[in-house]
Structures are given as C-alpha cells and as structure tokens.
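Protocol step 4 of 6: structure prediction from sequence.
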Amino acid sequence: MAIVKVIEVIASSEVGIEDAIQQAVTEVSKTIRDIDSVYVKDMKVHVKDGKIKSYGVICKVSFRVNEISS
C-alpha cells in the first residue's frame, strides 16, 4: 500500500514566483526523497517604495513514504 505524506513549507525569491517554488523543491529535496507533487497554497509579494522586492509562496509538498521490509 502506498502512503503519501504532506508537509507545508514557505519559500521566497527575489526573482519571481516560479523561482520561489523551485527554491521550495530544492530545499525539501535535500532531506526528502520521492517527491510526487507540490501544491501552491498561497502566493504573496513584498513591496518597498512601490516596487516588488521579493516573492513568497506557501507550498504543500507530497511525497511517498517507503515501507521498511521486516
């Protein structure tokens, strides 16, 4: 039986939304294997002096949990 676990992460980028999502996947991939999908729950931008300074995303990352054989 396949088990899927979901974690929520927050990531940001000064480049754009797509880069912020990639940052989330890159960081999660350092400790989690078998990532199946990323659901972008929320997006936002930080503004300073009338200009966008950074982009942020809240993502739900789904990955398979491997069973340990006994």
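Step 5 (inspection) to follow. Residues 9 and 52 are 22 Å apart (CA to CA).
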